Amino acid sequence: MAHRLAYRAWDGFEASLNRTDAGKHEATISPLVRMALHVGPAVRADCQVDDVRRSGWQSPGDYDLVPPGVQGQWEDATPALVMSFRFSPELMTRAAEGLDGRLEDLRPQMRARDPQVELIGQALRAELESPLPSPRLYGESLGLALAVRLAVRARHRPAPRLTALTPRQLRAVTDRIEAHLDEDLSLADLAATAGVSVSHFTVMFRRAVGQSAHRYLIERRVLRAQDLLVRGGRTIAQAAGEAGFAHQSHLARCMRRMLGVTPSQLTA
After folding, report:
1. Per CATH, is 2-154 categorized as 3.30.1330.10?
2. Which residues pair with 66 in a beta bridge?
3. In whole angstroms, how large is the CA radius of gyration of the chain?
4. Could you state, in order of their start, the residue ranges of all structural domains in the chain?
5. 198 exposed, middle or buried (CB, 10 Å; 0-12, 13-18, 19+)?
6. In terms of C-beta density within 10 A (0-12 exposed, 13-18 middle, 19 or more buried), how is residue 176 classed?
7. In terms of C-beta density within 10 A (0-12 exposed, 13-18 middle, 19 or more buried), how is residue 210 classed?
8. Which of 36, 51, 88, 153 has the fewest Cβ atoms within 10 angstroms?
9. Are 192 and 219 in contact (CB under 8 A)?
10. How many Å apart are CA 58 and CA 112, to the nearest integer?
11. What dotted CATH number matches 219-267?
12. Cβ contacts of 118 within 8 Å, gap of 6 or more
């Protein structure tokens, strides 16, 4: 049995932190791509996905991948702490197509290791356990990055070389961000504005701006809040809400990190 400790869902992607009991566990046939990342102490396990079987120690950082339409089974000798991820076929297809690949290229994997997968998993765990969730754009970016990394490992051809967003594309995206700072924008929204796929957008935006779309969004929100406080006569709560921050404390943390001052200091 799995005991869910934390859970979040985004567009086409969901993540949970689970503590599982010792014994047998099954992943029945599903249209979703499922991945389990081991994050607790090493566990002696017997695993089988489709016709692939592995026995031995499941160490922190090891992950198992179950493609769509495939059944899996695990038997753990002791309780385990696991990050579980589920990807929609649509998201995985976008990730694979961005690398000139196919969803069908994914193969079952057990006790696989990849430093980038582990780092993304750690970032997602921190987001799950945070008392102040980040904007949707951040979680979607991590989910897409994880999907792309899994697609990279299944790729048989080199990834296409992507350029930066054109000035016209970049202006359209930044104008949309500016006009909707108080909304929970998604990667799909911004990619559609640029007229590119979601998987391509994250790379092309970073090459055009030098930072991720999420970081750019947070910086624009901080500057909007600063302007509202200094020139707009808003209270800290009003400025936080109009700039798109969920809480005053979230605004204060981001403003201190970016500007070196707090909202209270600006209004003193």
Report:
1. no
2. 34
3. 21
4. 2-154, 167-210, 219-267
5. buried
6. middle
7. exposed
8. 51
9. no
10. 10
11. 1.10.10.60
12. 37, 61, 63
| Burial label, 193 (beta-carbon count in 10 A; 0-12, 13-18, 19+) | middle
> At a CB cut-off of 8 Å and minimum separation 6, what does 17 contact?
4, 5, 6, 7, 39, 81, 82, 83, 84, 125, 128, 129
Q: How far is CA 95 from CA 31, 83, 91, 103, 132, in A?
A: 16, 21, 6, 8, 28
Here the tokens at position 181 are: 């700072």
Task: Specify the pTM.
Answer: 0.73
Query: In a structure prediction context, what are the per-residue pLDDT tens digits for the chain, which is 268 residues long?
Result: 779 999 999 989 999 999 999 998 887 888 899 999 999 999 888 888 777 777 888 889 999 888 888 888 888 899 999 999 999 988 888 887 766 666 677 788 888 889 999 999 999 999 999 988 888 899 999 999 999 888 887 664 445 567 889 999 999 999 999 999 999 889 889 999 999 888 788 888 988 888 889 999 999 999 999 999 988 888 999 999 999 998 899 999 999 998 899 999 888 7
d(CA 212, CA 210): 7
- Report CA torsion sign: 115, 119, 125, 128: negative
Three-class SS state of 53 = strand
| Structure tokens belonging to residue 94 | 């976008």
Q: 263 with 239: CB under 8 angstroms? A: yes
Rounded to 5 degrees, φ, ψ at 102 are -140, 155
Look at residue 103 and give its three-state secondary structure: helix
